[in-house]
Amino acid sequence: MLHTVIKPNSYQDSINLMLLTNAVSALPGVIQGSIMMGTEANKDIFNNAGLYTEEVGGATPNDMVIVVETADATVVDKVMTEVDRFLNDLSVKKKSDGIKSVKNWNDAKEQLPDANVALFSIPGIYAADEIEKALDAGLHAFSFSDNVSLEDEVRLKTKAHEKGLLLMGPDCGTGIISGVPIAFTNVVKPGNISIVAASGTGIQEVTTIIDRLGGGVIHAIGTGGRDLSSAVKAITTKDAIIGLEQHDPTDVIVVISKPPAKEVRDDVMQLLQSLSKPVVAIFLGEKPENHEGNVYLAHTLEETAQIAVDLSQGNQVKENYLEEIHYSVEKPLEAGKTVKGLYSGGTLANEAGMLISEALELGGLIKTEGYILNANGFEIMDLGDDIYTQGKPHPMIDPEVRIRKIKEYSKDANTGVILLDVVLGYGSHPDMVNALLPTIKEAMAQAENDKRSLYFVATVCGTQGDPQNYDKSVSDLKEAGVLVETSNARAVRLALRLMGKEFVEVSKHTVPYEKEKLSLPTISAGVDALLNSTPSIINLGIESFTDSILAFGGKTVQFDWRPVAGGNRKLIKILNDLNRRAEIDESNEKVIGRMRDSQPFLMDVVPAKSVISELNGKVLLHAGPPIQFSEMTGPMKGSCIGAVLFEGWAATENEAIEQLESGAIQFIPCHHVNAVGPMGGITSANMPVVVVENKQDGTSAYCIMNEGIGKVLRFGAYSQEVIDRLTWMQNVLGPVLSKALQTIDGGLNINVIIAKAITMGDEFHQRNIAASLIFLKEITPAIIQLDIEDTLKKEVIEFLAKTDQFFLNIMMATSKSMVDYARKIQEGTVVTTMTRNGRNFGVRISGMGDEWFTAPVNTPDGLYFTGYSAADANPDIGDSAITETVGVGGMAMVAAPGVTRFVGAGGFEDALRVSNEMEEICIAHNPNFSIPTWDFNGSLLGIDIRKVVETGITPVINTGIAHKEAGVGQIGAGTVRAPLACFEKALIAYAQSLGIEVE
């Protein structure tokens, strides 16, 4: 039976998950299992493996998908324990390594301002977009990632060339920059040889032999396997060669290529012949008979290294570098025996296939289903081919596929020799030799029992400096009876000798180069700087790639990358287009500048109908985007009933409901008339509202006053107690505050109150006690001086003193005055409204004016009053999210550690985490409202829909929790996330308004 567990927003790179899959699959009771991210490609892999479930289909690329086949459901718990242990170990390692990590490009460049390279090991379908961002930021790109389209490769390499940068890759497995090993690479002594190679293990084989011969390498620039194709035209190869020609420490240039397009080979050859430095070149698949002009042409990777070392040491190049191998063979294998090659290195497999095919005249190489050679029973396999690595680690990391193949081939009576490579270095298995040896020993013993001849011939690609211990790897193989040669070419020659065939290498002389030489261009400043400095690398993807960089003096920062926009290709395309438009950032600065520069003053408290002309007749304002009575949830319906009773439009509850259901009463969103309302937001003509004026241009906003706690209208209560309080607020509280405010010249400066209260622990949505007390302090002297009855003064002052949340409604009107002032600039991607009506969450953005973008609202998570639970909770409701829109409330959780537990967070660390996370989706900080508990950073400013959609992080809103039934009221408090779909809709609509193709 299949069991599926989805871990939302839990991104890990593919290699970590492949290793985790191996660990989980080895658990007792697991028939098979797989752990991958929920990309469409990975879903295909799940399907092909018979592990696809309905839950898998619903996963996003940022979700970790765990599928286990087991007959015992309790095994799933053991699997999850192993998953948690593994991920925790990764987290502990990350902390112990002390590597700085970031989540976006801006932070990466801030952490590593002198960065000059971006290293990519992320899924190929996303790599092109990120590579382009790196190039646009002036960074060279090293793409370990593969599966980048040929079209994208050509486009990006052209862009890199035009910018004077190098795009190394895609599918670039290894490199060395200024002696710093990058990706899967070996530790090689520095020297005066530099390499340009369209081959990963080709670099590794040549550099390790150079090292063992006493030479050294300063640069090894990978280009990706397609660079010398007719489509790419060797863009990176040529730029790297030109750079190395003008790099003083490089005395010898080596070029390694997989079989190139003829016309491209000729172009590269002409360039090489135009250099002043000696060149060694190997075009795999060719068997050169002579050297040509300035270029020494090698047949094998070993010969390439041998010639390079001689040139680097000033020695004469030999006519023939063929040396005797270490093993003699008294009696070759009997007729009918064949060689099987099981390679982890693709280039080593190519070399083996080429040499065997040449020697035995097998008709050349093939490239199909992982085979390099498959003729007359001779099989050479590249086990790093995609067909073997889908959903599995590369064979340099994981021995499983080779173990399986060794068992298969060793049982074949026709198999005489099994050829193996063991590739050491950073990124590779910590002890591949001893991972393979038990299977090798078992196969050799079985062959001996069967009285069959079976030889294992191996080469170890590595150096004394590699972390796996080169000497021990060689000796362990030899002790087990494996025949070990010092290069891949020698190992192939030994295999051929065992077959009774001696390898012959022709002697080569130098012939003149007949074609015209080129006038070389000047090295670009970017390439010059790269080749003459220690690299500073932003690492996107496999975190272990930072190990070699740090160990050899490079600088690095870990970019904890995950697919933007949840991997949605349509949204990624839109984001890329929008992010390239500098004018959007300019517009956003203008919008948030208005929010930041707002000057809100509390001017008055007046009947709503006196400032909102639409409140004529039977009209009610409500919270959120437009909604009709029949669609409203319980609390809002209860508030409507209470408002009808308060206005005297009905004498009883039933009469009120009848009018509401009949359509006799009109509904308007508060936001449509410069107003906001808490929870249900119901506002009627005679309810008193605070008037906040933004003195920058006179923009005014309105909000009903806070009723206190208990049974209150905003939570849907409508008992006589509620109506009586509303009547008192209409007849006493409102008029008294109005008179008091008229005595304060110019009104009450709200910015000052906010600035003071935020330093005292308020975040202005769930906690307003400091601001409410400051307001009380400011207004009390004015009240006391009024010529009214003392009893009224006492009532008002006592009510304000007991109502800790009184300032919330003032803050709501303040926030509304700020965003309405900013909304007059109808440009950009800044969120200017967030609100909810119990059914839908609605947002507006600066560039789309009054248009609403809605999605079903979420239900809050939090703490409940005694006797209530989540089953009683109403979906989120109210206009109070206007506070988060201007960067306070849940966005400023860190300001109010005293309230974090009440809203469901765990304490200060959680509050800090939330505010840091919210910072990722905002444009700036507001210096007017400095937060001491956040190193005196200002509150956040300017939620950007691009950042929300890109990161998948939605605003956190602090909120009260209403009972879903009318009349019950508040049952708890907590936090709620805005639904992502609102922001996605807004992004698409905005893009369309700019004429961007969105399909």
UniProtKB/TrEMBL annotation:
One CC-aspect GO term = cytosol
What InterPro entries does its record include? AllG-like, CoA-bd, NAD(P)-bd_dom_sf, OXTCase_su_AllG_h-dom, SUCC_ACL_C, Succinyl-CoA_synth-like
* Membrane-crossing segments per the record: none
Task: Cite a single GO BP annotation.
Answer: tricarboxylic acid cycle
Q: What Gene3D superfamilies does this protein's entry cite?
A: conserved protein of unknown function from Enterococcus faecalis V583, Enterococcus faecalis V583 domain, NAD(P)-binding Rossmann-like Domain, Succinyl-CoA synthetase domains, v583 domain like
**One annotated GO molecular function:** succinate-CoA ligase (ADP-forming) activity
Q: Which residues form the CoA-binding domain?
A: 189-285
Enumerate the spans annotated as ATP-citrate synthase/succinyl-CoA ligase C-terminal domain: 342-496
Q: Which SUPFAM superfamilies match?
A: NAD(P)-binding Rossmann-fold domains (SSF51735), Succinyl-CoA synthetase domains (SSF52210)
Output the NCBIfam families linked to this UniProt entry.
PRK06091.1
Q: Which PANTHER family match?
A: PROTEIN FDRA (PTHR11117:SF24), SUCCINYL-COA LIGASE SUBUNIT ALPHA (PTHR11117)
**Entry protein name:** Succinyl-CoA synthetase alpha subunit
